[in-house]
Amino acid sequence: MKLKTKISLLSAAVALCCGSVGAQTGAAGEVAAPASMPWMNAQLGAEERARLAVAAMTLDEKLKLVYGYLGSDMESKKTTRPAPSYKQSAGFIYGVPRLGIPNLWETDAGVGVASQGGPDARPGTALPSGLNTAATWDLQTAYAGGAMIGAEARSYGFNVLLAGGVNLMREPRNGRNFEYAGEDPLLAGKIVGAQIKGIQSNRIVSTLKHYALNDQETNRTTLNVKIDDRSARMSDLLALQIANEEGNPGAVMCSYNRVNGVYACENSYLLNEVLKKDWGFKGWVMSDWGATHSTIPAANAGLDQQSGMPFDLADYFGPPLKEAVLNGWVPQARLDDMVRRILHAMFAHGVVDHPVAPAPQSIDFGAHAAVSRKDAQEGMVLLKNSTGALPLNRSAKKIAVIGGYADRGVLAGGGSSLVYPAGGNAAPELMPKTWPGPVMVYPSSPLKAIKARLPSATVAYADGSDRAAAAKLARESDVVLVFATQWTGEGFDMPNLSLTDKQDELIASVAEANANTVVVLETGGPVTMPWLPKVSAVLEAWYPGSDGGEAIAGVLFGEVNPSGRLPATFPASESQLPRPALDGFPEVADRRFDVNYNEGAAVGYKWFDLKGLTPLFPFGHGLSYTEFAFSDLAASVKGGVVRASFTVKNTGKVAGKQVAQVYISPLTARWEAPKRLAGFQKVAVQPGAGVQASVTVDPRLLAMYDSASKTWKVAKGDYKLTLAASAADSKAVSTVVHLDAAVYDVNGKPTR
């Protein structure tokens, strides 16, 4: 009987995985489960299906699901990837084919389907940087980008995406800022949540990362972040909490750093208490690659899956975990919970019911490039346009284009998120060529796109290496476009906020030769601009993605009216930062040190407000080729819920989009800073027309977090609502509302 039962189960698994004749189809088109495999019944909830599947597993089958491999050969460790993994991929976890549980194929996907370096790099479509997407302030654009990445990943056979980066920009020199979504918890959480939702619309899993407080790369694996609970809950953790609520990710990736003395991936407070208990997260926690440091402490503290071996020093969740379970050091119930969480996400997000099958020939790279281009153009920020230099006049006869590899393409950020383009690297000579490189220039040339729009003009290029020659070309031209780049990447931070390779001097020389100089920045974050008074216009193009050259040209020539707004403050100098000197820089291997977040929850514009500092450009800033005005601001309070309505009018001559930003300030209570972003809405308005819009304020943004009771407490009193175009808008309009004292639970829901 036992032999017959095993054969029956195996046959059922083969039937489900390979489409064998005899499976019954229900009314909704779902394949009905055989009685012997009830967890395959799609009519059951994910929680029940996961429970049933765990009950059917052997100990060794459970252990397979909690242990992840690197999906690439690692020469330095003398290891080879598992045979079923995809070449040069990020990770792989064996499934349980006996029970119909598929393998997990993982890819890095911060801005697109990434690839490890090597001879078999898969080509993909790169979105612009995460900062660019945050600068769109548009949830539909964020969702569309996520959906595109997810579709491409699925076509390549991946069902887990290591995406969803939402580490707040506490440190503008952080090399990974380009992957994230800026400095404000509401904006970052909403944008990344929409991206995650878009990714998972493809019936695959996205992570949310890096959990938590992983805000610099220098000594990221050894540093210790020190912060009080209330400040963390109102800043970095709030951003992650909102992204979790909006996106419902299947997995969370814990980070490298220590938090208040304990590694994030074995920090019971972060993993068990905050994430799983307080937020009710039902998915699984995977470690970052190389972020696991133990077996028993990590498992009992809430880590559900070790990732990317051999990055860690030992296979902590391999044989050592089995021994720990058999000896009772890690309870059997804890291992079951680890596996159940992985299966819950796989069932909830369609990974089991809709298995992936590689079909790269089905990818519509043209359509995906259009998604990337729209994202880029929605997020580019026109920082300055004092003389109306932009949009460019098509009657210009002589244009100078200088620097930034603009004759060949546009820059990308480095590290694990790097997407390899179909056309190859347009500047393969650039260093470094190995991790965190290669420095990648996508073959979408701004120079080529500009020339196509000015067929009768003379468009000359200089690479900027000869400053005198560049200045001479500038003097002889009607208008000058200087492309300045700043390459940042995973694993390192910038020493300061200046442009590298003497580009500041180049821009100053060119602007001295021709006042009609436009600077296009391709940067991983904020930079200082000592030449700013001398140039006529500045466009922040971030890392603009696969079709970046076309995207930039479209904005420069007014085919697209720029509507990006800064998701992060641009400081005037490093002296304005909470930590003027970057802790631990330059990096010394294995050094342990503390990073004290003494600014608490006053991150970014909140710090500048608190200290009365004037930045180079404020959070939320961005210009347009038209003008806007706000009016009719009205606010109401019902059941403690604040709602603001208003009108946005286009007072200019061309159509455009404005980002209406609602800030709130207590007039009697004291917060971590004078004001907070409470809501935002991006609206498209025709010239001369007005559009009505409204925002509803999350009660957590009206409150202070109380750690003792785990509640958000709103103080009784008057609060000023301000409708503005930036955090420092002098033309803002405001009104006052009165709030009664109120208490909300840890998730911002009314207490009873």
Automatic annotation (TrEMBL):
Residue ranges of domain Fibronectin type III-like in the record: 658-727
SUPFAM superfamilies: (Trans)glycosidases, Beta-D-glucan exohydrolase, C-terminal domain
GO BP term (any one): carbohydrate metabolic process
GO molecular function: hydrolase activity, hydrolyzing O-glycosyl compounds
UniProt entry keywords in alphabetical sequence: Hydrolase, Signal
Pfam families: Fn3-like (PF14310), Glyco_hydro_3 (PF00933), Glyco_hydro_3_C (PF01915)
InterPro entries per record: Cellulose_deg_GH3, Fn3-like, GH, Glyco_hydro_3_C, Glyco_hydro_3_C_sf, Glyco_hydro_3_N, Glyco_hydro_3_N_sf, Ig-like_fold
Keyword match Signal: yes
The keyword Lipid biosynthesis is assigned to this record: no
Signal peptide location: 1-23
Domain of life from the UniProt record: Bacteria
Family to which the UniProt record says this protein belongs: Belongs to the glycosyl hydrolase 3 family.
Record-given protein name: Glycosyl hydrolase
